[in-house]
Amino acid sequence: MNTKLTARLGLLLICTAVGPLLGAPTASADRTVTVNTGAGNINVRSGPSTGSQLLSTIPNGTRVAISCHVRGEVYRGGPYGRPTDIWNQLAGGGYVTDGMLETGSNDPVVPTCGGPPAPAPTSGRSMGQTRTTNPGFAGYCTRGAYAKWFEASGHRFYPALSGNARNWANSARAAGWTVVDDAQPRSIVVFQPGVHGAHRADGHVAWVDSVSQRPDGRYITLTEMNGSAGFNRWSSRTIKDIPGMAYILLP
């Protein structure tokens, strides 16, 4: 993880309120990096998630050797303030989040490895609070996401959500809906501000039509309103699932 982040300007999507293929690493791939937790120790896990077995801890400031990386649970803590799904395998075994390592980059610095795959997609889809009308303002992304959900539900209900697009994941959790970080079809994807061109204040939402796995990660094909086609217009695109995206699942 790098402390210096480069802002990337792209398509501005305006909203308003209402695993991977793995290969074995080689010994020469090891890279020495520094643990940077901000305070305290870093946890070494048996797999690429905070729910995996705790194997040991390593003090802040320790130099450690990492051999390879996998994509796993999105980690949102650490001193850098940037979510990451990169988990590095230590040369001696076990996984640590890239969010607490000073590697000099926000991207992987070691090859993909043959360790455990990323956590399997969540199968449970809870039923949350609903509403009978679409409260999104006409022409905006929230209106479109509600409409696609309603259509996929068999024209039965809308989810009872509130706030700007960026707030929808938290709103959905509070309303009883299942929200996950791993990309899944039949869901609303919530983009945090700036992610894939989302509005830098309000974020963005869209409907996920399908999910596919490629050698470099998971991709989603989505349908959105007020996206690349402009205000009050529908459009579709295929993009990579990256940190800063969450998914509200339709049962």
UniProtKB/TrEMBL annotation:
PROSITE patterns: CHAP. Residues 1-23 form the signal peptide. Keywords: Signal. This is CHAP domain containing protein. Pfam families: CHAP (PF05257). Residues 116-249 form the Peptidase C51 domain.
